[in-house]
Design a protein that fits this description.
mainly alpha, Amino acid/polyamine transporter I, 17 helices, transmembrane, membrane, transmembrane transporter activity, APC_superfamily
Length: 450
């Protein structure tokens, strides 16, 4: 019986401070966004990419309203899984959209891991073979897995330490880059063929990936001290901090590299931007910061996403097998999360990983706002116009992004559609299965017995 009792998730309520929570959020946001997305966004929208970061910040600001309102009403370590359940109940929309969020977070880990590999290889003149980037990425995920096994305090301590170093370092890169630039006049005319509205919206959608780490904070819900106040505050602080940092660094890169150079070095554009103004020492410094940023981001992401899957498992919304492993469900979900991340890191390149992540995330985000609008508005005391605007902005960004990918990489759209169909069918089969019905009945009987 004791072994069975140990199968539950173990949440450590009140173990995360406001500062620690902000560091977890900014850890994921800054890790993903600024180091790898800058070049990809420039490739899509030309020299307008710093403005695409700002447009993404506007969209995320509207998006965050729904999350703050729900987390104030229902703080939960299950975060988005629990929010969807509050809106849609024990049904397919909850399980489907929660799994989209889960996969988008696993994708974010792989994105960070490959970014880590791309920057690290700049110390060795690049990765001609194409093998070292995924190998380094896989190694980083395994290291983050070990630290996560050591518990909350270890994760918070390491993430906070890395967070302070990383934010300081990125601010130095941005300030020095702007200070030493020949000119701050970014050439906004050089948008070339890509300077159309669809491409700007597509780049804005990618920019949203740079901010979506704020949802990591909602997944830490009940583990945050005074969550009804601090979850919302942590989200707002994280977004504002990232707007300042991204804008600064975006202009530093745009001032020091030509558009062609930014696109050519898109997987490591910050290191490339450091070279003309600071020489090789600047490159080493930038790479060191990038390595810390991506490492901290993976650490925080694995921490949050494994908790979300554990909550979905406890809610009987996803199938679960122990595969012979001992310990709690949370430990198992940590293993599944890491294994999935390893596969993606090994076999997908950066731009395709980012594309899958943004499609899954925006569809889930729309479902959250619709849930607030349709089912939870009175319960969470939300005004209706903000989620309406958030849905419209999400649809605009998603439409622009899909249009760009239809023209440049339709394969990745096919992968996204097939994956969503498989998730939907698999979940429908599971939710209507006799095994799940039995598990739910057993839980009810157990609750009645107590």
């Amino acid at each position: 019986m004791s072994k069975e009792q140990d199968r539950t998730t173990h949440y450590n309520e009140g173990s995360l401070t406001l500062a620690g929570t902000v560091m977890l959020g900014t850890g994921v946001m800054i890790g993903a966004g600024i180091f790898a997305l800058t070049g990809q966004m420039a490739e899509m929208t030309g020299a307008l990419f710093p403005l695409a970061f700002l447009a993404a910040a506007v969209i995320v600001s509207f998006s965050s309203y729904s999350y703050i309102k729900i987390s104030n009403a229902y703080p939960s370590a299950g975060g988005i899984g629990m929010y969807l359940h509050k809106a849609y109940g024990d049904r397919l929309p909850t399980a489907f959209h929660a799994l989209l969020m889960y996969f988008s977070m696993v994708i974010a880990q792989s994105f960070l891991a490959r970014t880590f590999g791309s920057y690290t290889m700049q110390l060795f003149g690049g990765d001609e073979s194409g093998l070292m980037v995924p190998i380094l990425g896989v190694s980083l995920i395994l290291a983050a897995f070990v630290i996560n096994l050591l518990g909350n305090q270890m994760v918070q301590g390491v993430a906070s330490f890395i967070g302070v170093l990383k934010i300081t370092g990125i601010l130095i890169i941005g300030l020095v880059g702007v200070w030493l630039a020949d000119s701050l006049a970014v050439d906004f005319s050089s948008t070339g063929e890509t300077g159309v509205a669809g491409n700007f919206l597509g780049a804005t959608a990618l920019g949203i990936l740079a901010f979506k780490g704020f949802t990591t904070i909602t997944n830490s819900g009940s583990e945050v001290k005074d969550p009804r106040r601090n979850v919302g505050r942590a989200i707002i602080i994280s977004i504002v901090a990232c707007v300042v940092i991204y804008t600064l660094v975006g202009f530093a890169v745009a001032s020091n590299l030509s558009l062609a150079e930014i696109i050519e070095t898109r997987d490591y554009s910050l290191a490339a931007a450091a070279r003309p103004v600071l020489g090789e020492y600047g490159v080493w410094f930038t790479v060191a910061i990038a390595m810390m940023a991506t490492a901290g981001g993976i650490l925080a992401s694995i921490f949050a996403v494994s908790r979300m899957l554990a909550m979905l498992t406890e809610m009987k919304l996803v199938p679960h097998s122990h595969f012979g492993m001992s310990g709690s469900i949370q430990k198992h979900t940590l293993v599944y999360t890491v294994v999935l991340g390893l596969i993606l890191t090994a076999f997908f390149d950066l731009s395709r990983i980012a594309a899958l992540g943004i499609i899954f995330y925006l569809i889930m985000d729309i479902a959250i706002h619709w849930g607030v609008l349709r089912y939870l508005r009175e319960d969470v005391k939300a005004v209706s116009w903000v989620p309406v605007v958030a849905i419209m902005l999400d649809l605009l960004a998603l439409g622009g992004f899909v249009w760009v990918k239809l023209n440049s990489d339709p394969f990745v759209l096919g992968v996204a559609v097939v994956a969503m169909i498989v998730i939907a069918i698999g979940e429908q089969v599971f939710l209507t299965s006799s095994a799940r019905k039995k598990a739910v009945d057993d839980e009810h009987a157990h609750a009645d017995h107590h």
